[in-house]
């Protein structure tokens, strides 16, 4: 049974939420958005496109209930935990799902991350190697979605976003790319599973269009798996600016400007990685972008050397 009512999108001004809004609007679906500041430039841009804005945040339960009550379906996305607020992600998911249940929402599509819920199997997990709070928070949010009484619950598990190679995220994730280098603590043979934010949006829109078909599914998402040398080759070819991959020790990668948290994730990729089975998305008929296709589409936004 297809649904056509309004969808409330959280994280609406971010990469994933924005991509979901793009896909829903293209499909002709009414879209609402929960935003902290309706007067911000990004929020006003959404309003100009016909998105109905609701001021509020996950800790404002009254505003959350008001926003959710206008929707038939919800796109659920929360920020990861923060040292000053380690319960932020779990609490936000709890408040959103509770409000959705109380309002009679029919469908929730929750975005998580590939391999969430598998953290206890990670090599070195008992030694606290991999920012445990990140993974336990993701798992807790997923559990809240699974255990809810909402009629249709779907969890998307994207891998590493291709959009991290362009502004604004590139400055943190790959600080030296502007100088023609991808400097990481990843081993030369380590492969990175990649997904375009736009594809997350398109998948979510397809799920919202037919939630009965996807009910209860947890779908890992990656369009391609590449080494950093292969990523550098694609960026060189697309932009015409030479890009090379440099593989450093963790300490040297931090010294070169990469944040410690980013370097720890790169070390996790060496040992574990996202390990997305791309055949699962293919079985559902999702055609996901290659990195070359994504880079060509976003060529004008890639900041590399003289490009």
Q: How do the strands and helices of this protein lay out in sequence?
A:
Blueprint: E1 7-9, H1 15-26, E2 31-35, H2 41-48, E3 52-55, H3 61-68, E4 73-76, H4 88-103, E5 107-111, H5 132-146, E6 152-158, E7 160-161, H6 170-173, E8 181-184, E9 192-195, H7 197-209, H8 211-214, E10 218-221, E11 224-226, H9 228-239, E12 244-247, H10 250-255, H11 260-271, H12 278-283, H13 291-297
Parallel strand pairs: 1-2, 1-4, 2-3, 4-5, 5-6, 6-10, 7-9, 8-12
Antiparallel strand pairs: 9-11
Helix pairs in contact: 1-7, 3-4, 4-5, 9-13
Q: If classified by CATH, what would the architecture of the domain at 7-160 and 195-222 and 276-288 be?
A: 3-Layer(aba) Sandwich
Helix/strand order? EHEHEHEHEHEEHEEHHEEHEHHHH
Looking at the structure, what is the overall shape?
A: globular
User: How many beta strands in the DSSP annotation?
Assistant: 12
The CATH superfamily of the domain at 7-160 and 195-222 and 276-288 turns out to be NAD(P)-binding Rossmann-like Domain
Number of helices: 13
**Could you give a short account of the major beta sheet?**
7 strands, parallel
> How much of the residues is beta strand, in percent?
15-25%
The percentage helix is 40-55%
Radius of gyration: 19 Å
Oligomer state equals: single chain
Terminal-residue CA separation: 48 Å
Spans of 5+ residues with little confidence (pLDDT < 50)? Answer: none
- The averaged pLDDT comes out at 96
**What structural class should be given to the helix and strand makeup?**
alpha/beta
According to CATH, what is the topology of the domain at 7-160 and 195-222 and 276-288?
Rossmann fold
CATH class of the domain at 7-160 and 195-222 and 276-288: Alpha Beta
User: Strands of the biggest beta sheet: in what spatial order?
Assistant: 3-2-1-4-5-6-10
């Amino acid at each position: 049974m297809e649904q056509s009512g309004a969808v409330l999108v959280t994280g609406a001004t971010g990469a994933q939420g924005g991509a979901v809004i793009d896909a829903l609007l293209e499909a002709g679906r009414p879209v609402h958005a929960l935003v902290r500041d309706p007067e911000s430039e990004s929020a006003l841009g959404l309003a100009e496109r016909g998105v109905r804005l609701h001021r509020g945040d996950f800790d404002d339960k009254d505003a959350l209930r008001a926003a959710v009550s206008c929707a038939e379906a919800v796109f659920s996305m929360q920020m990861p935990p923060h040292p000053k607020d380690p319960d932020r992600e779990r609490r936000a998911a709890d408040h959103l799902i509770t409000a959705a249940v109380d309002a009679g929402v029919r469908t929730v599509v929750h975005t998580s991350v590939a391999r969430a819920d598998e953290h206890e199997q990670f090599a070195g997990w008992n030694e606290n190697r991999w920012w445990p709070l990140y993974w336990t928070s993701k798992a807790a949010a997923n559990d809240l979605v699974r255990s809810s009484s909402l009629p249709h619950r779907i969890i998307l598990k994207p891998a590493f976003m291709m959009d991290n190679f362009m502004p604004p995220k590139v400055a943190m994730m790959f600080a030296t790319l502007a100088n023609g280098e991808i400097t990481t603590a990843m081993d030369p043979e380590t492969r990175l599973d990649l997904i375009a934010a736009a594809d997350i949006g398109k998948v979510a829109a397809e799920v919202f269009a037919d939630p009965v078909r996807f009910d209860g599914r947890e779908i890992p998402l990656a369009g391609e798996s590449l080494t950093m040398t292969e990523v550098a080759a694609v960026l060189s070819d697309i932009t015409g600016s030479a890009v090379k991959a440099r593989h450093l020790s963790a300490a040297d990668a931090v010294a070169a400007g990469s944040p410690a948290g980013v370097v720890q994730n790169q070390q996790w990729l060496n040992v574990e990685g996202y390990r997305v089975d791309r055949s699962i998305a293919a079985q559902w008929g999702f055609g996901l972008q290659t990195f070359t296709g994504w880079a060509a589409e976003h060529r004008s936004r890639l900041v590399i050397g003289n490009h």
